[in-house]
Amino acid sequence: MNLLTQFAQAAEPASGDVFAALGIDWMMLIFQTIAFVILVWLLGKFVYPILMKTVDARQAEIEAGSKAAAEAEKQATEAKQAVDKLMQQARRDATDIVTTAKEEASAAIEAAEAKSKTRAERIVADAHVQIEKDIVAAKKALHNETLELVALATEKVVGKTVTAKVDDAVIAAAVKGAK
Amino acid sequence: MNIFAATDIHISLAAEEVFAIGGFPITNAMLLGLVGLLIFLGIFGYTAMMVKKGRYNRFVGLIQWAFEGMLGSIDTVISDKKLARKIAPLALTIFFFVLISYWLSILPGIGSIMYDGVPVFRSLAADLNFTIALMIITMVSVQVYAIKQHGVFGNAGRYLRNPFKDPLGAFEGFLELIGEFSRGLSLALRLFGNCFAGEVLLLIIAILTSYLAVVALPIFMAFELFIGLVQAYVFFILTLIFTSLAVDTHGHSEAAPSHSSHPDHSSADHVSTPVTAKE
Questions:
Q1: Which positions in chain A touch B67 (Cβ < 8 Å)?
Q2: Contact at 8 Å (CB) between B84 and B206?
């Protein structure tokens, strides 16, 4: 304060008024105060809200973006976890399916083997039966043919010496014997 | 032989009357303040208009960047966003207007335009009427917000306590009251001192360096631009800190801000020297 007084004395030696020396004029002070308040009010009413709105909007966008990024990261983590879980489940299912398939395949092979064996046996049995039948038929045909040949040979050998009556009796006896 | 370009120095601590309108004196500080006001309104009016229309360019982007930065500072200092938005118009206007006024005074030749033997322009921040007006508005605003927060009696209780019940608290309250005045006064005098000293510094450098001033002055002008930015920011941030302290419900006396960490050349040597040169 001493310094200011000294200065004021130097600047305004006649009046000795500190405020006047410092250039403080009450009217001017009030005028400038009111003018500045009006300036603040004007800017606060018409200018700053527009700029603040854009700042807020940008801030909101940044926050929304940040939130969305965090959400996306969370979802990605969750999705990865879900995928891992699904993969594990799929691996388990695949293992089960493969095991089941192997078992089923084995069973099918066994069943097929059994079936083919049965069928083969039946085919073999049928073949045996057929062969037997064929043999019987062949034997019968051979017998009949043999008889015919015998009859024919006999007829040729004894045809000229034996009468028809004797011939028939011989044939009948031969046939009877053959039977 | 006189080696200095100008030796007849015209120095005035007070803003000088250039002319009067109806008996009301119009000072050189007011004239430059008016120029600053027009520039300020022009810049922000244009920016607001362009933003409203959704048309952006580099200049608008620059102003928006500065505005957003300062708004961010407000939000950092004052945690209550609602209060921050209420104090923002005052704090932002102080910052930008003081900055423009300060920087205008650094323009080369601004002090050499004379009318009737008086410099026509002088920095508004180098007029105590303006800095005290800012201080009054700031301190009244701080008290208004404090009263809104604590109530009339609650706010008075910060300063006035029963000395019989709590002698230490009463003393603390008294100190707080003195602190309020000293904070306000320091706000006004710091800005005035720095701006006035800056103008004087440029003048003295111009005289001392004579014709080499063309080389020396730009360095000091750049320095003054920086000081202007710092001073505007200091006034701005202290307004916020005082508001924050006043509305603080957890005790206000502990967190008194330190003012000593910013560049400040408003020392006694600077205050006792003056402004313009008569060539």
A1: 51, 55
A2: no
CB of A47 within 8 Å of a chain B CB? The answer is yes
**Digit-coded pLDDT (tens) for B183-209:** 999 999 999 999 999 988 888 888 888
Tens of pLDDT, residues A88-120: 999 999 999 999 999 999 999 999 999 999 999
With residue A104 as reference, give the H or E element that holds it: helix A48-158
* B135 CB-side CA count, 13 A: 21
**A11 with B14: Cβ contact below 8 A:** yes
pLDDT of residue B223: 92
Residue among B9, B10, B12, B13 with most chain A CBs within 10 A, to mutate: B13
Domains in chain A, number: 1
Enter the pTM of the model.
0.69
Low pLDDT (below 70) residues in chain B = 1-8, 249-279
Identify the pLDDT of residue A161: 63
Contact: B92, A54; criterion CB under 8 Å: no
B214 touches chain A (CB under 8 A): no
Domain extent at residue A161? 2-178
Of residues B96, B14, B97, B22, the one with CA closest to residue B62: B96
